[in-house]
UniProtKB/TrEMBL annotation:
Pfam families: HSP20
Source organism (scientific name): Archaeoglobus profundus (strain DSM 5631 / JCM 9629 / NBRC 100127 / Av18)
Keywords on record: Stress response
Protein family (similarity comment): Belongs to the small heat shock protein (HSP20) family.
PROSITE patterns: SHSP (PS01031)
Boundaries of every SHSP domain copy: 28-138
Any single GO BP term: response to heat
Lineage: Archaea, Methanobacteriati, Methanobacteriota, Archaeoglobi, Archaeoglobales
Gene3D superfamilies per the UniProt record, alphabetical: 2.60.40.790
Protein name in the entry: Heat shock protein Hsp20
InterPro entries: A-crystallin/Hsp20_dom, HSP20-like_chaperone, HSP21-like
Length: 138
């Protein structure tokens, strides 16, 4: 028997197509993925900016645990949408999660967060001990 690499590629493609068709039959997919964040050191504070489009403010949770800032958001499927006859469904429902290491000396009690137009901004103040001190060279 002669090995035909093109035939093997065709078989792999058929198997992948069947696999994706199986996923489509499962119905709405629930995903749990990370989302993009910017972490900016602004001297006296750390600013975290996260893209969370499509979430309501009430769907987002923020907390500090073991020296990390944790952001979790969940988008739930509405019941009436479940009955619709979709031709294509790409919008996802589910959870997104991100854990961001913070410097040791932050003021956890005074962290503030705001959410506007799909962008979450978290301000984490530094303690006096953590603020940058410039040392003059003599």
């Amino acid at each position: 028997m002669i090995f035909d690499p093109f035939e093997e590629i065709r078989r792999i493609q058929e198997r992948l197509n069947r696999l994706f068709e199986d996923f489509e039959r499962i119905g709405p997919r629930v995903v749990s993925v990370e989302f993009p964040v910017d972490v900016i050191d602004e001297g006296d504070r750390i600013r975290v900016v996260a893209d969370l489009p499509g979430f309501n403010k009430e769907d987002i949770e923020i907390w500090v645990e073991d020296g990390d800032l944790v952001i979790k958001a969940e988008r739930k499927e509405e019941k009436e949408e479940k009955e619709a006859n979709y031709l294509r469904r790409e919008r996802r429902f589910g959870k997104v999660y991100r854990r961001i290491a913070l410097p040791a000396d932050v003021d956890v009690e005074n962290i503030k967060a705001s959410y506007n137009n799909g962008v979450l901004e978290v301000i984490v103040p530094k303690t006096e001990k953590a603020k940058k001190k410039v040392i003059k060279i003599e």
